[in-house]
Amino acid sequence: MGFEDDLKARRAGVAAEIAELRSRISVLEGVLLSFDGIIHFYDPSAAVAAPLPKAKISRHPLPLQLQQINKTEAVFQTLREAGRPISTGECAEAIGIRHGVDPADPALKRFSSNVSATLSGLMKRDRVRQVRAADGIKNLWEIAA
Predict the structure, then answer these.
(1) If we measure between CA atoms, which residue out of 119, 116, 96 comes closest to residue 106?
(2) Residue-level pLDDT at 58
(3) Series of mean pLDDT values for 10-residue runs along the chain (145 residues)
(4) What does residue 61 show for φ and ψ, rounded to 5 degrees?
(5) What is the rounded distance in angstroms from the CA atom of residue 84 to the CA atom of residue 141?
(6) For a surface tag, which of 33, 119, 122, 135 has the fewest beta carbons within 10 Å of its beta carbon?
(7) Who's near 61: CB < 8 A, 6+ residues apart?
(8) How far apart are CA 101 and CA 95, in angstroms?
(9) What is the rounded distance in angstroms from the CA atom of residue 114 to the CA atom of residue 135?
């Protein structure tokens, strides 16, 4: 491993640690707000800290071609074409690619939550089912027989 590769690996480690710390801070801010709410409930006159400013959330709007599709139909087509159980992310990515969306588009992550909601609704109607992946962690989706 060369000098440059070592620097790149260290940089990636620092970036990952920053992301982890941001996530942890967000969780702790939520806990703090919960404590403030409980304190205020039991003692409305208690002086609690001013609410923390909300972090700006960068929203990536869904591409028009993903807004206009029938998600249920797209999910069934993707599950049929896959021929095997697939994850929500794989399903969303396949739908996006089929409709001309770049796989690196950050809006695909948001679209994945739409696909997840569609799959959950279909599961409630016994149209699809979840199966456990070989790793025992991930849930995959398939058409219910």
Answers:
(1) 96
(2) 58
(3) 79 84 84 84 78 60 88 96 93 94 86 93 94 80 90
(4) -60, 145
(5) 9
(6) 135
(7) 107
(8) 9
(9) 25
Q: What is the predicted pLDDT for the residue at 1?
A: 59
pTM of the model: 0.58
Closest of 139, 144, 91 to residue 118, by C-alpha: 91
CA-nearest of 124, 129, 123, 145 to 86 is 129
Residue 96: burial class (beta carbons within 10 Å; 0-12, 13-18, 19+) = buried
- Beta bridge partners, 132, equal 139
Residue 117 near residue 86 (C-beta atoms within 8 A): no
- Per the CB < 8 A criterion, the answer to whether 115 and 70 are in contact is no
Residue with tokens 């699809």: 128
Contact 55, 26 (CB under 8 A): yes
Q: What are phi and psi of 130, to 5 degrees?
A: -95, 140
Cβ atoms of 79 and 145 within 8 Å: the answer is: no
